[in-house]
Design goal:
Elements (H helix, E strand, L loop, with lengths): L1 E3 L8 H9 L5 E2 L3 H6 L2 E4 L5 H10 L3 H9 L4 E4 L1 H4 L2 E4 L11 E7 L9 E5 L2 E2 L14 E5 L1 E2 L10 E7 L1 E9 L2 E4 L7 H12 L20 E10 L5 E4 L7 E2 L2 E2 L5 H11 L3 E6 L12 H10 L6 E4 L5 E2 L5 E2 L1 H11 L3 E4 L1 H13 L7 H9 L4 E5 L1 E6 L10 E2 L10 E8 L4 E6 H11 L3 E4 L13 H10 L4 E3 L6 H11 L3 E4 L1 H4 L5 H10 L7
Parallel strand pairs: 1-2, 1-3, 3-4, 4-13, 5-6, 14-18, 14-30, 18-19, 19-22, 22-23, 23-28, 28-29, 29-30
Antiparallel strand pairs: 6-10, 7-9, 8-11, 11-12, 12-13, 14-15, 16-17, 20-21, 24-26, 25-26, 26-27
Helix pairs in contact: 7-8, 10-12, 12-13, 14-16
Amino acid sequence: MISLLDYGAGNVRSVRNAIQALGFSVTDITCPDDILRAERLIFPGVGAFGAAMERLQRLGYVEPLKEYLAANRPFFGICIGLQVLFDGSEESPGVAGLGFIQGHIRRFDVGSLSVPHMGWNDVRLARESPLFANYRDEKLYFVHSYCAAPTPENTEWQLALTDYGAPFLSAVQRGNIAAVQFHPEKSGAVGLQLLRQFLAGENTTKPITNSLQQTHFAKRIIACLDVRTNDAGDLVVTKGDQYDVREAGEVRNLGKPVELAQRYYDEGADEITFLNITAFRDFPLADQPMLEVLRRTSERVFVPLTIGGGIRAFTDASGKSYSALDVADEYFRSGADKISIGSDAVATAENYLECGNGDGSSAIEQIARVYGNQAVVISIDPRRVYVNSPDDTRHHTVATTTPGPHGEGYCWFQCTIKGGREGRDVDAVELAWICEQLGAGEILLNSIDRDGTGAGFDLELIGAVSQAVTIPVIASSGAGQVEHFSEVFIATGVEAALAAGIFHRREVPIAAVKTHLREQGIETRI
């Protein structure tokens, strides 16, 4: 019997879907005794170390888990499922882990590299294991800010290492107990194969064919799907030109969200982002159409899924109130890996600027506290405001190579809300910086000026924001040809680039983008 330890830590649905897609049945752990009855136990999870251990304690799972592990019974941990095997973590000082591996989890200290370590990387095998019997240097999906360093004290556990600034343990194993820092359920075919090895109880080892001397972190190519209802009430993927999604009076219909997401997964997209841009944000949460989109997509698509739009506290038409964390909980449990926050982040930044700090009540802080920084993406929708001199505004300005309508040589990037319809007295650089301080783990940086133009990414905007933060930045808006992707990676160093219309209309295939990047010496996932 394969048992899944679902203790409320993020997107467990994707692990369950992956197991079922591989042809295995799975039961959920519902009480402490179920742990000891399990024949093969999978411990997935994302989020904060302390929050995970608190849930395990509250549910009465800690002692049965220790007993199960002490008996050397088949165990497979994923992400937090690896970290809790250690004594503790810098992320949650004073919180004890399960204590099966000596040492503490530490935060990355990688200098110029962004934290979280978010994206696709390789592993270097330290020894043979049935788990990696079919591994051939493929890239696997990681998303974490804390890691386990290889030390003399954990030598007997070391199975695989990955390089990100310095080597860290990406897989551990001793006897029947194994765990990985990456997410096999989000690593496409190679991840599913590794998961199959555990589920089938495969005991055959093969000589290590892993040839890497050092692993290589890849740039990500992300497909974005703007989802809304059209005038007939159908849920469709659309695309705007400078945020206008209508053409000849009708909402552009570029396909159905689940089918289009499946297509992008098959074509090699490294992640898929859904942006909810329709009025059904205010439906009762139980009736939210995007939840069903996520559920169905996560049954077919085994790369990370991000959902944005309407992630905030609200009261629906029936008078029922939801916190931002309530909304995020439902999205995570429906298949989302990350939550994108837009307009609400601008309001949070305005409050921060007024008060000088956060008060713990914002959606960013609430979600990061429970699910970890890596689960929170900030979607910024700026437009250029031109000035003659930096002295003309308090905002962060850049000297621009594209002067304003009256020859202005400088501009700042004004944040907008409500789908770009309303500008606020907050600029993109300060918004990104504030959101990082409050716990965000990634920036999705759009550009109203470049949206739908095919003129290329706004390098001045992207460079200014990426220099102001230490978290990953996704470049968005304006891609029209493969060269635009290499241009933004080389010029700004961002970790990912996103496109929508050119992928929807098959003007630029994802495979063509990746081929071009590799020709330019830029690492990608094949």
